[in-house]
């Protein structure tokens, strides 16, 4: 998969960009196409154009700004006739301005969006911290927390609010027990316990710290890394799996 997002903030007119919806994409890299595959599905002979062959993931915001994926848009990706996935950043002028990172078969990144309260003299942009499986465009674990749906089923969070526009990820070898939930999710769960599920680090997981000027989250993730290669796409920083 070639994973990339859209956004630009080079001049004063770039951000906020009202009326423009930015997106995150995961496009299957068919770099080796056999003649039999091309004959079976001629559309695979060329890169996708537009979103016709991409599966849309629709994000739903909770009351505290965390995001889940709508159950109706969480269908399995079928690469026999689909070329990948995409989702719209849900907030006004939300966009990707920094390079994604990779940890334990997940893509992690922060988005940037205008602060909701514009009445203050200093209303710096705020962010969201995303964590998802690049192969599916869905959250692969409950590292960011889970909410209970109306039908009682768990819904994994794909993003949580963050006051930091950029963060760093580091392996946590301090030996401390990883936190059950990031601070924002913990606060929400304390206020709405009926909507939350308990979470703890399982065996054979590894602790990562998400560190920013204000952020300090601990994530429990599987203790191995995917094979990652660098895919040169003009004008983009991309990961290829």
Q: Termini distance?
A: 5 Å
What global shape is seen? globular
**Spans of 5+ residues with little confidence (pLDDT < 50)?**
none
**H/E order of the elements?**
EEHEEEEEEEEEEEHEEEE
Largest sheet: 8 strands, antiparallel
- The portion of residues forming beta strands comes to 25-35%
| Helix content estimate | under 10%
**Integer average pLDDT:** 77
How many β-strand stretches? 17
Rg, Å, rounded:
19 Å
Which structural class do you get from the secondary structure elements? mainly beta
Total domain units: 1
Q: What's the helix count? A: 2
Organism: Polaromonas vacuolata
Protein name: Type IV pilus biogenesis factor PilY1
Task: Give an overview of the whole structure.
The chain has helices at residues 35-40, 183-191; strands at residues 2-5, 23-27, 54-56, 59-61, 67-69, 84-88, 95-96, 101-103, 106-113, 126-132, 146-148, 154-162, 168-171, 205-211, 216-222, 229-230, 239-240. It has one domain. With 241 residues, the protein is mainly beta. Strands 4, 5, 7, 8, 9, 10, 11 and 12 form an eight-stranded antiparallel β-sheet that branches. Strands 3-6-2-1-17-16 form a six-stranded mixed β-sheet, with no helix packed on it. The chain is globular, with a radius of gyration of 19 Å.
Descriptive terms for the model:
2 helices; 241 residues; 6-stranded mixed beta sheet; 32% strand; 6% helix; globular; mainly beta
């Amino acid at each position: 998969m070639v994973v990339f997002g859209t956004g630009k903030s080079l001049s004063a007119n770039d951000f906020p960009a009202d009326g423009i919806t930015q997106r995150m994409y995961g496009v299957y890299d068919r770099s080796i196409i056999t003649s039999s595959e091309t004959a079976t599905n001629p559309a695979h002979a060329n890169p996708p154009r537009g979103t016709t062959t991409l599966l849309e993931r629709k994000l739903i915001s909770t009351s505290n700004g965390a995001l889940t994926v709508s159950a109706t848009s969480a269908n399995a990706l079928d690469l026999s006739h689909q070329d990948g996935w995409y989702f719209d950043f849900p907030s006004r002028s939300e966009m990707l301005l920094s390079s994604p990172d990779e940890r334990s078969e997940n893509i992690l990144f922060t988005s940037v969006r205008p602060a909701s309260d514009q009445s203050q003299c200093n209303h710096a942009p705020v962010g969201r911290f995303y964590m998802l499986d690049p192969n599916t465009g869905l959250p692969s674990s409950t590292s960011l927390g889970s909410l209970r749906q109306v039908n009682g089923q768990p819904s994994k969070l794909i993003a949580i609010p963050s006051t930091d526009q950029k963060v760093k990820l580091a392996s946590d070898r301090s030996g401390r027990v990883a936190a059950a939930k990031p601070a924002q999710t913990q606060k929400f769960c304390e206020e709405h316990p009926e909507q939350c599920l308990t979470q703890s680090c399982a065996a054979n997981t590894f602790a990562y710290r998400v560190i920013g000027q204000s952020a300090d989250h601990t994530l429990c993730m599987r203790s191995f890394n995917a094979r990652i290669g660098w895919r040169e796409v003009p004008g983009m920083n991309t990961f290829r799996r």
